[in-house]
Fold each of these.
Amino acid sequence: QLQLQESGPGLVKPSETLSLTCTVSGGSISSSGYYWGWIRQPPGKGLEWIGSIYYGGSTYYNPSLKSRLTISVDTSKNQFSLKLSSVTAADTAVYYCARHRISGIANWFDPWGQGTLVTVSS
Amino acid sequence: DIQMTQSPSSLSTSVGDRVTITCRASQRISSYLNWYQQKPGKAPKLLIYAASSLQSGVPSRFSGSGSGTDFTLAISSLQPEDFATYYCQQSYSTPYTFGQGTKLEIK
């Protein structure tokens, strides 16, 4: 059974870089037909897609975050990572990683990691 | 960006009731619409993909329908474990966007 687990600091200072890693177990990150995505949810609010990456390295990002965002993949460790620079309090959220299934044009997120809360505060 | 609007935002309902949640897209998205269930403190769980395809392991009391701009999630007979927040998500074009959520509460 495929499982995803987010890891990284729970507290980041304003203007610094938020860094998270998602470790995939029970399956290979190099499987064809799957991207790997990040989604976030501010406390008490809705969901926002951040971006997705293929094991070969191709990415697509939410334009609202693109200038601050880097998503990378390490197939040797079965992990993918998120870096978001110049963070502010507005970046405080639960960050989820998820497998992003692509089937033609249709695509969906399943399964998801349990999520990790990142707070931006001095 | 494609805006997704769900209605209602919240709904008080009872075990055994039939419930429908509506999701409207700001432009046509064919059938590229997914539904997720989220319980407090938990990650979202995929229920329906491509508007009407039931994800493996999801009870058959959940169903999805619609195409174009208007979509519906139906739960035929609410069970206690179904009280949660439900989100729609368009997968037609990036940035992929979600509805604001519909919270089902016990009456």
Amino acid sequence: NAGVMQNPRHLVRRRGQEARLRCSPMKGHSHVYWYRQLPEEGLKFMVYLQKENIIDESGMPKERFSAEFPKEGPSILRIQQVVRGDSAAYFCASSPLTPGGYTGYTFGSGTRLTVV
Amino acid sequence: GIQVEQSPPDLILQEGANSTLRCNFSDSVNNLQWFHQNPWGQLINLFYIPSGTKQNGRLSATTVATERYSLLYISSSQTTDSGVYFCAVLNSGAGSYQLTFGKGTKLSVIP
């Protein structure tokens, strides 16, 4: 049973380009969460999605960032017109159930975005 | 929101030594997890421990939810234990699902 799969592992973009980060949850998990880790900091919540629904995007920057989790395929975190401050590690996590039947998050290996 | 404080922020150990890492949180929680971020950046789930004690090899963890703290014990440390240890909590409450992370304890184990 493969874990949470993220790709690419490393992504370099020039300022102004678009970055697309992909996340495939664990088999049987229908809840996906994106977190961002800035250098020397802990992870911060960005967005929570279920299939075809954004449940909570309260941690997403207001502009340039968007996320989706289509009926088929991986979840995508999209950053338009990247700036140097977007350089960070982006982690995806999945869980099988909403809190109440909760057994903990499993995180992917992350995508390290570098904006040059 | 809930506050999570970890101590110490940095720790240097000689290989073979034991250590205790602490996580304090400011409100009641219904989930607590310990993670190890290795030097390559991977985030490894160590324990899901909202209460009680668990052990896995040289690692064990105890959460006393009523007193709002958790401890991670590392015995007979090895160089491969180096990295950052994060505590993350899920605030109790209807519909809560956002993990709040502490700032981590950076552990360096030297030969």
